[in-house]
Amino acid sequence: MLKLDNLQVYYGGIHALKGISFTVPEGKIISLIGANGAGKSTILKSICNLVTPQQGDIHFGDQSIKGLPTYEIIKMGITLVPEGRRVFSNLTVLENLYLGAYSRKTKSEVEDDLLRVFELFPRLKERLKQSAGTLSGGEQQMLAVGRALMSRPRLLMMDEPSLGLAPLLVKNIFEIIEEINRQGVTILLIEQNARAALELADYAYVLETGVIVLDGTGAELIENKSVREAYLGETR
Predict the structure, then answer these.
(1) Alpha-carbon distance 154 to 76, whole Å?
(2) Which positions ≥6 away from 156 have C-beta within 8 Å?
(3) What is the pLDDT of residue 235?
(4) Within a domain: residue 227?
(5) Measuring CA to CA, which residue among 26, 63, 61, 20 is closest to residue 43?
(6) Closest by alpha carbon to 22, among 200, 188, 163?
(7) CB atoms within 10 A of CB 226
(8) CA 71 to the chain's CA centroid
(9) pTM (global) more than 0.70
(10) Per-residue pLDDT for 154 more than 90?
């Protein structure tokens, strides 16, 4: 579905991505783990052209999307849930959700997807007229995911969806990610909670300073000694 080939990204003199190559098969959950500064968020920003790679290519299906305008990439079916939620705080919950569907033309389909979001996040339905800035952190994360789903994505990219959430809400957000995937949406996930990300993943990649240093199924990486010591806080 998605293929990155030798992606090279520089921020000034900093070499942020050093030849990143991997694939995201359709229908799967793929996790990226690594320390802060490893290049994980830069990968997601490169895919949706918020950062333009200096070298390499990105294919979605059989088409190169490198350098395409971000709105065109969204129309093709790729959506990002950014780190920090980034909801429009002065707009209502409903207005935020409708903004997620800005590129869509069929009103009946948009309304169907609104009902789907309410099924996943009943709390949002209770707060439709409330300003997004007055929501709790967990509710804002629900809104950020719901807004992304309103674009009806084929590939949903999520950057640290559990960041700053209470443990009970973390469990809930991962259950929702699983449900979204069961409904047919492919997931590319960055997550600070490495154990949860690996338990969820069909396949995962470990990044260090812009390089993929390990890859394997989530189960394989959970059992990897270096992963357990570096990311799971364990020794064996």
Answers:
(1) 8
(2) 79, 81, 148, 149, 180, 185, 186, 187, 188
(3) 59
(4) no
(5) 20
(6) 188
(7) 11
(8) 17
(9) yes
(10) yes
